[in-house]
Every structure is written in C-alpha cells, then in structure tokens.
Amino acid sequence: MRLPLLGAVLALLVVPLPVAHATPSIEWSTCGPERPDFECATFTVPLDHDRPGGATTTVALTRKPATDKARRIGSLLFNPGGPGASGIEATWYFGNKMSAGTQGRFDVVGFDPRGIGRSDPLRCFANDQERAQFLAAGPIFPYEAAQERPFFDRYRSLATKCDKPIARHMSTADVARDMDLLRRALGDRKITYFGHSYGSFLGTTYANMFPDNIRALAIDSVLNPEQWSSGRQIESDRVAARKVLDEFFRLCDEAACAFGPQSEQRWEALLASARAKPITLNGEVWTYDRVIEAGLFAGYASERWTDVASLLDQLSDASAGTLAAAEPVYDNFFDANLGNMCADIEFPRTFGAYRAISRYAAAGSEFGPYWWWSSSACADWPVNEDRYTGPWRARTSAPVLVVGTYYDTGTDFAGAQAVAAQLPNSRLLAYAGWGHIAYRRNQCAIDYIHEYLLNGALPPAGTVCPANPNPFSDLASQLAERDFRRSTGPVANR
Asked: What integer pLDDT is reported at residue 264 of this predicted model?
C-alpha cells in the first residue's frame, strides 16, 4: 500500500552513470600488531563523481589477504549495514570467517563508506558530551502527543548542525560509484560482493547501476529498494518487529521462559505501566520508549532472547521510580546514519505530515513510531542530486543471491521477496528462523552463501533453511552463545 503523503514525495528517476575516472592506486600496509591478519590502506575518490577533477575525499580500507594465493580468485568486498556501520570494524570481526568459508581464495576487503568511521567522517557534534546532551534532551521517540512537536523541531535542527561538504555527497549511489572505482583499483574485472542489511541496499544499487560488472553478489536481510528509496520503509517497519515479537511470545510460552506464561499479556501490561509511570530497576529508570527499544532488540538477536525475557520479567515486577538518563558513548554512527539516509530519501517537510504518518505507523504496531520519528532529522536536509532511485529491475551479468529471514525486525522477509522479484537474474534463499542477518546465526544459510561466493553456485529454487532450535531451549542457548561470541560484530540499525 502506498500512502498518499509518502507516494507524492518521489518520482522514480534514472540517474546517468558518471564519466570515466582515472583508477586510483592503493598502497597496503600493516594495520598494527593488534590486527596481524589484516592490512590497511586509504583510497582517494572524487567528492562529487560528476566533477572527477575537483575536490576529493578518502575511503579507508582493510583486507584479509587470500591465504591460498595460488588459487586466488580476486577480492570479496563486504559491507555490514547501518547505514553508518564501519565496514572496517565488521571485517575485523567477520573477515576470518569469510576467508575460511571461501577456502582462502579471496582478499576479503572491508571499507568505511564515505562519511563513515575512518572515511572523512561526518560529525554533527563537537564532542561526546554535546551529542549525549542532544540525545538525552528528549525521548528516544515521542510516545505522547505533547512530545511530538519538540522532538520534530529538535531533530529537524540537525540539518543545520550536520551541514558539512561530505554530507552533500553521502548517497548510496556515491558509495556504489566509489565501490566500482575500488573494484578497478583492486584489479578485478567484475565485482564479488557480500552485504548485510542496509548493505543489501548498497548491493542492489550497485547491481542496477553497474549490472554488467557482477561476478557474484550476495545480499542478506534485504531492504526493498523501491520502498526504501521512496521513503515508504515505514510500511514494513510498522509491522515487522511485532511479527518477530509474536514469535518471541509463542516460543517463550512454549519453553516456559522467564517472561511466561502468558508473555504477551505481561508485555501489554508492562507497556501500560511504563506509560503511566517510569519503572526503576536496580537504580536504572525505564521509560516507555526504553521498554519499546528492549522489545525491538529481541527482533535482532534471537540468541539473546533468554536475556531479554529475564529483563522483561524483572521490569514487570519492578516498582515505579525516578528518571536517570544514561550517557551514550560518542561515535560517528548516529551522524553517518542520518547523513546517508537523508541524502538518499526525500522525506516529508512539515510537522503535520510527520504527525499523520506517525498515526499510520502506530496503527501497525507499538514499534512503528520508534522507526518513523528519527527520520524527522531529514525534514530540512537536502537530498543528494546524485542519488539513485531506480529503476531496480536490471538483468545482471551473473545471478544475484538474495537471502531473507522469516522473522526479522530490521528487514522484513517481504524485502527479500521483493528484490528477488525485481531482479530477473536472482535466486531467493530463505531462513525459516528468527533474527537479523542469517549469516550471523544459521549454518545452512552460511554454507550456501560461501558456496555461491566461491563458485557462483546457487541453492536449488525454493530452498528454505530450517529454523534453529527454539531460542529459549537450553541447547539453542548454548549453541547461540558459542556462535555469537565467535562471529558477531556490532549490531547495526539495518
């Protein structure tokens, strides 16, 4: 369904490909004694790809060199999502796993996209304290009518605070163009790419802008690009998290977890209590928006469901108290997330439109407003003139592997189904379980992804990887804890 307010925001545009650029060189060196398996470098690209002879920006890189150099295939580029997550940090987490899974035949290459992490980072605040004060000045999202206008005005002011040169060139299309330059600089005739979450949107954008340059492209936990680029992602967000939470309740009651029995009824009572008065637990104050955030986390990490159930159980039993805000640690993720999202998507401009769509979001589930209101930072933010908004139906030079999880808060399974339908040369692989990013938690999906990246072999049509055991079972908890500690990196928004 397309909302009138959102549907009028964008028309699909065909963005012409940039003029040819000279290929920059890359000089690799050690990342330091703490990262002995990895090399690091920087890569210079045009700030504006329409002006290749003008100002430049730098992209920070890391790589895990191929261990089987005699049979080396090329480079495997990786993006973990966000938008705003560091590809370098994620590659330091996942690089050894990806290298081993592809028999050491690739240089596994991670990069911080422009404006993110170590790549000319966009910073909207002078220091950690200023950022923490901004976030602590209001709720995580407005959940009372009186909170909406102050929240909107505060977040809208970020367009001025974040108005830096890099902010005007942070669209996903800019990153895709950087990635194609990187492919050439690495000496690869065609690209091999693996992207999670928002990294799926980068992969889909690249596939449609450079369809003839694909050797293998796998995307996991997939955003529907038609929905995302047109500002209609709230259509998915308003219901996806509740689908996962319903599974949380079902499996909690089935396994007699700490939050059961009747976990759904306890959740509704907990929300009502937190709305009426903040809850104090062990000296920490939980307002309604923080309880919603705790429930949302369950949709990302099924391996933490026993911990979430224990927390919700304690909150349900706790008495009300006084507010004490925690101060977050500053990093570039918050700024970069907005820098990329606002560059890509033309959101509504008025408070009235935001308020109306918030009602639509809330009608989907209690999680809808959480997702929606942060985009009000984009109300006064100019979209990037070089962004790519379609078409999304290119026939790629090699098949694309599209991986989706049935119950995923950040990227609904419908997104994977949509991309598999949009790209005529693609194959859908489903994981019938819970959590964000199948590559983090399901060996069946992991094996298919590695085999595809290595040999281009697709799973049989209609393949569904069975769900892992009930996350509340003892066996599942032990296995998930082991796998989580071995392989996980930071959890991104998308």
From this structure: 97
Q: In the structure, what pLDDT confidence band is assigned to residue 493 with cuts at 50, 70 and 90?
A: low
Residue 466 and residue 457: Cα distance in Å, rounded? Answer: 20
Closest CA to 107 of 87, 83, 77: 77
**CA-based Rg of the chain, rounded to a whole angstrom?**
22
Give the span between the Cα atoms of 435 and 251, in whole angstroms. Answer: 14
pLDDT per residue as tens digits for the range 213-231:
999 999 999 999 999 999 9
- Cis, bond preceding 261 (omega within 30 deg of 0): yes
CA distance 278 to 147: 16
Whether 345 contacts 374, CB under 8 Å: no
Torsion of CA 436, 440, 444, 445, to 10 degrees: 60
pLDDT at 331: 79
Rounded-to-integer distance, Cα 418 and Cα 210, Å: 20
The domains located in the chain, with CATH, are 29-122+167-231+387-465 (3.40.50.1820)
Q: Are strands 426-434 and 400-407 parallel, antiparallel or unpaired?
A: parallel
C-alpha 108/C-alpha 488 separation (Å) is: 17
For CA atoms 381, 385, 391, 394, the dihedral sign is negative
The residue type of 137 is A
- State the sign of the Cα–Cα–Cα–Cα dihedral 421, 423, 427, 431: negative
- In 3D, which of 356, 231, 373 has the Cα closest to residue 292? 373
End-to-end CA distance of the chain: 22
User: Could you report the per-residue pLDDT of 33-63, keeping only the tens digit for each?
Assistant: 999 999 999 999 999 999 999 999 999 999 9
Give the pTM.
0.89
Residues 6+ apart with CB under 8 A from 187: 74, 75
**Exposed/middle/buried for residue 281 (C-beta within 10 Å: 0-12, 13-18, 19+):** middle
DSSP 319-366: PB----PPPPPP-SHHHHHHHHHHHH-----SHHHHHHHHHHHHHH-T
The mean pLDDT value of the chain amounts to 90
pLDDT, tens digit, 9 for 90 and up, residues 245-302? 999 999 999 999 999 999 999 999 999 999 999 999 998 999 999 999 999 999 899 9
CA distance 419 to 401: 10
Question: H-helix or E-strand containing 93?
Answer: helix 87-101
Q: What is the pLDDT of residues 95-114, one digit of tens each?
A: 999 999 999 999 999 999 99
For residue 123, which amino acid is it? R
pLDDT of residue 489: 40
Q: Which two three-digit tokens encode residue 237?
A: 């967000």
Measured CA distances, 34 to 21, 38, 78, 79, 110 (Å): 35, 9, 21, 22, 17
